[in-house]
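User: Could you check the structure of this?
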Amino acid sequence: MAQDIIAAIVLAIWLYLIAARGGFWRAAERDDDAALAAGTPATSQWPAVTAVVPARDEAETIGECVASLLRQDYRGAFNVIVVDDQSRDGTARVAREAAAAAPGAGDRLTVISGRVLPAGWTGKLWAQSQGVEAAAQAPNSPEYLLLTDADIVFAPGALSSLVKRAEQERLVLNSLMVKLRCKSFAERAFVPAFVFFFQMLYPFAWVNNPHRATAAAAGGCMLVRRDALAAAGGLAAIRGALIDDCALARLIKARGPIALTLTDSAHSLRAYPSIGDVRHMVARTAYAQLGYSPLFLAGTVLGLVLTYLAPVALTLFADGFAQFVGLFTWAMMAVAFRPTLRFYGLSGLRSWIWAAALPAIAAIYMAFTLDSAYQHARGRGGMWKGRAQANI
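Assistant: Sure, the predicted structure tokens are below.
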């Protein structure tokens, strides 16, 4: 009897996720719409844009990031500000060298030495705020800010596409979930699942619907209207947010429509060669996502067990109706995961193997989440480049 009740709960969960959660599993919200690509901005002039790149000890990737930004085929005014957040590895020098080597870059790159982190701010937001301030004080201040990270590389037409959509749809925020690196075993095991879980938590169709409250963004690429950001209180309004991209989306959606899509036009160079590297990435923010609440943590663990582990347990150890439901929901889970796997280049038999392994992957993510709470209790929450930033 108990196993039948659990089976009924599990079935209800997956029927809801498949049928009523914004179709998140289809991974259908993309930035490659042909009609949009062929369009033009809503105005006759291409608006001015400034990219703001916070960088702390990013010498390994900042050169490629800056070079890709300076290679944009954008027809309006476009400048790049790198905020060197007290790096110890020559980040500023590498950025300047990349600009010097870029044909026709001229003086479009500005490197700012970041000031000491004040109390109440996370490091990234403090660095970004200094770049936003510098952009606003420029002789020709931009209409849009491109907030990106030092490990992101853009295709030449990425900025034009971002601005086109923002202008056509009057967006105050247009964000792309850049394609994360997916080469090592750890990356293949955890990166597509990370994107799948993110889409489940924040269905992109709901984010893109101005009549829904759901708001999210991906910090690697956020094109935001500067006046809307200022009217919302600027980055100071979210200065202590560890998950800054979604905090910004929530802040600014009240000012107008926003968009979040998957993309092939920008990708991250950030490598996660081992499971330990993925653990650190997840543990840095997972407990912050739960509001540092032990109650929410317990609820999340229970939810993960029922959603991902119970179908496997029912398949292997139950009988009758409960066993059938376990196998059926496990199959639904695998089918739902495959579009995201295909987006990351995992197809054929490999995609089915990874899809079937989603319960095991979810169990490891659950362990990472528990570790995030443990690190927070140790006073090491939000650790990044030598800074513990949680609950600051």
